Amino acid sequence: MIPDSHRSFDSVRDEDHLDSLLSEPTPGVVEAMGRLEGDLVVLGVSGKMGPTLAWMARRASELAGVDRTVYGVARFSDPSREGWLRDRGIEPIRCDLLDPDQIDRLPDAPNVVHMPAFKFGASGDQATAWAVNCFLPGLVCRKYRRSRIVAFSTGNVYPLVPVSGGGSVETDPLRPVGDYGMSCVGRERIMEHFSRTLGIPIAVIRLNYAVEMRYGVLIDIGRKVLAGEPIDVSMGHLNAIWQADANAITLHAFDHASSPPFALNVTGPEVLRVRDVAERFGELLGRPPSITGTEAPDALLSDASLAGRLMGPPRIDADHLIALVADWLRRGGTLLDKPTRFEVRDGQF
Questions:
Q1: 3-state secondary structure 31-46
Q2: What are the C-alpha distances in Å from 53 to residues 114, 147, 279, 335?
Q3: What pTM did the predictor assign?
Q4: Nearest of 302, 296, 285 to residue 224 by alpha carbon
Q5: Where does the NAD-dependent epimerase/dehydratase domain lie (predicted)?
Q6: Most exposed of 84, 132, 264, 286 (fewest Cβ within 10 Å)?
């Protein structure tokens, strides 16, 4: 039986409860994992999304009755991540993914999730950003030329667009702002090259702001409200999606991997006004927000209508997510202290 704890909950008790929710598969993910043949490798598993995505793949495979090894590959600078994965039936593998020899020694698998990325600090270390975001995807495509790949990208491949337009769609030109966005277009182009020349089925996930209780754009805004810090609304609008839904859409995207690659915007359906979000947090936290700046007429926004048509709406909408975040902050829940810097308008991260 597929879990249904997403149907009704108004509070996240603790980190164990949170991780369980973030890894809970949808029926569509269970069906998708049932259709896949063979093992699954998650590259860059130790980031913010990787652990619960890998666990969701494991849980969905078990529910589908598929005997599959899920490998989690990373450097594991935090060794506790290895134990966390192993306790949940995922096989961790240490690997420096910029070392071609180490990549060649990774287990072969017909299904790959590519998650490595370099964003924060990219404006000060452009060479590493381009190596991680462009050189590494080429190594991965050569290693896994006989596999199906779902690769993370970002909404930063798009330019700032008028708020009134509802956001960029997958067929829009890629005209990023800043080195990070340009290197992410490079990642997509490298993968497209290998997809076309080697026939690799690939799905590209252009993600805009996955949110859970410990980090994300809503946590950034809610923390400032709680602390009485000013909130700059120059980047006045944004998209966000519950991380469990982003995980589910990513795994479901194996159904749509193709050559040339299939691109998919992954975010919530709402265009959120930062001022409105701050005011809602103010009501929930009992602290009126301090607003500075004036909303620009454009913002970094993506239209996720295609994902909604293919995979259904997110399980949690923005209003519910804001309430959950406010409750977590009010109770002093654990935070990762990793700001998203969503307010950046020049692409310099």
A1: HHHHHCCCCEEEECCC
A2: 12, 19, 32, 19
A3: 0.95
A4: 285
A5: 41-207
A6: 286
State how far the Cα of 53 lies from the Cα of 43, in Å rounded to an integer. 11
SS3 sequence of the chain: CCCCHHHCCCCCCCHHHHHHHHCCCCHHHHHHHHHCCCCEEEECCCCCCHHHHHHHHHHHHHHCCCCCCEEEEECCCCCHHHHHHHHCCCEEEECCCCCHHHHHCCCCCCEEEECCCCCCCCCCCHHHHHHHHHHHHHHHHHHCCCCEEEEEEEHHHCCCEEHHHCCECCCCCCCCCHHHHHHHHHHHHHHHHHHHHHCCCEEEEEECCEECCCCCHHHHHHHHHHHCCEEECCCCEECCEEHHHHHHHHHHHHHHCECCCEEEEECCCCCEEHHHHHHHHHHHHCCCCEEECCCCCEECCECCHHHHHHHCCCCCCHHHHHHHHHHHHHCCCCCCCCCCCCCCCCCCC
Query: Cα dihedral angle (251, 78, 126, 215), rounded to 10 degrees?
Result: 60
CA atoms within 13 A on the CB side of 255: 16
Please report the domains of the chain, with CATH numbers, ordered by start residue.
7-209+243-268 (3.40.50.720)
Q: How far is CA 25 from the centre of its chain?
A: 15
Sign of CA dihedral 198, 40, 96, 180: positive
